[in-house]
Amino acid sequence: MIKIYSQRFFALFAFLIIVLSCRGERENGITSPPIQIDAQNPAVPQNLSASAITKNSFTLSWSSSTDNVGVLEYIVNVNNITITSKETTLKIKDLNASTLHQIHVKAKDAAGNISDASSSINVTTLSGEVDVYVSGYSQYWKNGISNVLQTSNDFAVFGHAIFVAGDDVYNSGYVSKGTIDTYRRVAAYWKNGNLNFLEPSNSVQKSSAEDIAVNGNDIYAVGSVSESAPYRYYKCYWKNGVKTTLPNSGNTSYTDPAPSTIKVENNDVYIASSIWNNFYKPVYWKNGIMTQLSYSSNISAATVRCMDVENGDVYIGASGSKIGNVRVGFYWKNNVINELIDCEGIYCIDVIGDDIYVGGNTSSGKVAYWKNGIKTEMPFGRYMTGLKVIDNDVYALIGKSSEYDSSQKVYKNGIELLNFNNVAFTNLFVLKNKNPEFLNKTSRKKQKFIPMLWNRFFCFL
Question: What CATH number does the domain located at 46-124 have?
């Protein structure tokens, strides 16, 4: 009873103090300011992406939202299940393998105002049977986890191709430094991120390694070397650091050497490229012997983009144009040309047994791949720069870029697997199956993605 009376007494006392206080303010001509209500929503979160993707987890990140008062927390929606986070990163775990997750994020302030949802992304957890490698200028990613490429003596790093043999990761490219008068570019490769020069680091010649392959204990890289006075360049390849010049590949005209791609099968070395003779002509070398590829008279130009070798058969993809400047995509099998319908360029190729997979663009500019001539359009992007097939699953690296946006995505059978925003890639990837049967010598070549060759990337000054 005493407790109840005490509570009532203090409540009444507090009420009287409030009433008298308000009366005093009104008597002195003072009016209390109205209570300000925050009704403004925070800005929409931007740049949502996923990294470090495994078979049972991945990490989300996004850019901070702004608010007139301040953001209290973020509401993360994963397959209609909401999770709150005070930070702009969040690890999602305890997931099932090979499962698609649809994700968006909203921002919330202290007043309970909630922003509109961010752009949604799809993330598929890995199956546990493959590793996905993506190569960038200064690093490479394995299943979304970054690995830095080593540099030396203030050189800038420009990685390009990637090859995986067993547990070892090889990258090709070059390092460079200096101004116009002192500029140096030196061909190099990296093994598990460690730098190895292919040309002397103080060389005045400019060189680059454009593709790389591994056969047993032998490391092969293909590229070009150029000189400034007088200007000339030639194509070459290095085997364990020893250089061999490719015959009929030199030129003294001021043209950029077209990039090259390399394959090694049964100790035979295959290299495909384009050489300049008033215009670029498609060729390939087998053990140093050059074959010029033929094409019909209605094709006015052809540039080699990619190559694969399967049981001694040579497949080379290209883009070109017909009379009238009509763009066209085609590939050769042992120098027999095959033109694709509704295709304006082939940039990737992978041959598995009797099945020929090529990737490129349709005549309307859409990204697509063709299996034995049958087209499958992809749901995203402006260009395909990687294509690999394992166990009938088709993996593709697709990108789009503009002055406002740049993104790269890896798809598996048309479903988004990895998503990268605002990251500079050299446009290739490799898949290595963890099953030991995929790691033997005879099937090791199938671990390598067939890269797209970028003429603009290997410009020689």
Answer: 2.60.40.10
